[in-house]
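CORE FACILITY INTAKE
Project code: CF-77B
Contact: R.S. (postdoc)
Sample description: multi-component assembly, two entities in total
Requested service: structural model of the whole complex
Turnaround: standard
Below are the sequence entries exactly as provided by the requester. Do not edit them.
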Amino acid sequence: MTATPRIAAVDMTAPNFPGKRFEIPASAPLKLDSGVAFGPVTVAYQTYGAPNAEKSNAILVCHALTGDQFVAEPHPVTGKPGWWEAIVGPGKLLDTDRYWIVCANVLGGCMGSTGPKSANPATGLPYGLSFPVITIGDMVQAQVRLLDHLGIDQLFCAIGGSMGGMQVLDLVSTYPERVFAAVPVATSYRHSAQNIAFHEVGRQAIMADPDWRGGDYLAAGTSPHRGLAVARMAAHVTYLSEQALHRKFGRRLQDRKSLSYGFDADFQVESYLRHQGSTFVDRFDANSYLYITRAMDYFDLQAEHGGSLPAAFEGTRTRFCVVSFTSDWLFPTAESRMLVHALNAAAANVSFVEIVSDKGHDAFLLDEPEFHATLRGFVDGCAERRGLRGR
Amino acid sequence: MNEAGSLPAAAQSRPRASIRVDLRTIGEMIEPGSRVLDIGCGDGALLDWLSHEKNVDGRGIELSQTGVNACVAQGLSVIQGDADTDLKDYPTGAFDYAILSQTLQATWDPKAVLGQLVRIGKRAIVSFPNFGVWHVRLKLLFGGRMPVTDSLDQSWYETPNIHLCTIDDFVDLCRTLSIDIEYAVVLDSAGRPKSLRAPGRLANWLGEQGLFVLKRAG
């Protein structure tokens, strides 16, 4: 790799890291799916807009694997715009003049919420691999504690793409009365064998980096940035599509007129991936990547309900809008359709749209006018039924 | 918790654009506040009308993804799907009404679809073009060509209507499936009810379309 290794200069676990914090005390720990009682836990979160008098206008945005709580503002580490600024903001689709947007960094994350990078209060040292294995359900439990803290009895809407969509589904299944409307986007009710396989490639890349040091790299003063970058590069390919890669790069060469007959980044697509890998390590913790990918692998709403997916949504009164994208091969439309069939079998109120896009899985983050038009219709329709008016 | 299906009073009073006469004829039959599944809901005109005029908790199934996206963009609950394959998912009695308007003749297995309709809906409302109407009979008899009419407006090689029937045929099928006909009416070409006793011999001669309210026997 030619990319210069860099170590993040910002400590996201420091108390002065920007953003809001909520503490789950050790006296009322999270009850993790693994059986561990875990606390204290910090939940780092951001809000945009303001609550109405009844706090009935809250929208919980659930972020994806490598996302975070900085939805609609410049990122404090990278300086880049918020990851969903296209739709969250004043006058935008999720209008912050009308709705109260809440987004929390997931449990196990590395952007201020308690994760493997945080100091274990018992030892004063980073948890590393002594951090408990967590699940999507555990992440949701932490978010529900935040909702309790904020005084939100029922969310107007829970929305998220990819792993965020898994959280949305787990939330409506476990806490059905707390969500009026749910929008799982580019996601599934369970992680497929192919997706587990890709995650395993990423984890092995991290653990094969000698600087990973059995997970204790922070104490050792090293950083498995090469392994993490490779993990990111492999994963990034799965977020795109063959068409999108071809359109963006084709077989074009990078800063050269002919092949080098060596292993430099001859092709633009190689250079792009190397860049994706090297910038990722600035903002993401390698152990967090292990834990969060594991949580996604473990997610299987059908198995959790005795093999019957409709049982996960029995009696639900939530209004659903399921969204998939034609070129998404990581969470293909067929899986959304399975989810829709299960919701029908539970007589749920469900809309389902498949958006034509060649942008692959990442389409949910990008400017997709038809996605935004249908999402706007769904959200506005739900707001009308919830009796929410413009402010 | 606010009931997911009910509309606040302010929303209900919003004026709606007028809808096609045949859809309105169906809409008028629906009890206010009921749960409705509209199969082949197209652009969602009937669902939209029902949710605002009758405070109905409505869902739709539509074959065309463009139609679905347009419906959802209007705030309607619609999924992409098809009458032949997707009705089996729904639990028995999930809806007060299952509506299949002008679609039965385009399904692969009208008999199975009809059975599903009266299973998932406490009542099913079905309308279809009547192939027994007098001018269709005359066109075939004297023209010797597949009839093209207001209700059947495409040539044989492009029509999606693969299982055309007459009103009498339909009544026979209901009898075979032990389905009770609660109410039946024939419509003119615009979809307005005609004052004719239906089902009946005259209805099969004069009705452009048949509109039936069905119920599983017993």
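Facility notes:
- The CA atoms of residues 131 and 166 of chain B lie 5 Å apart.
- The beta strands of chain B are 35-39, 57-62, 77-80, 95-101, 121-129, 179-187, 209-216.
Invoice: internal transfer
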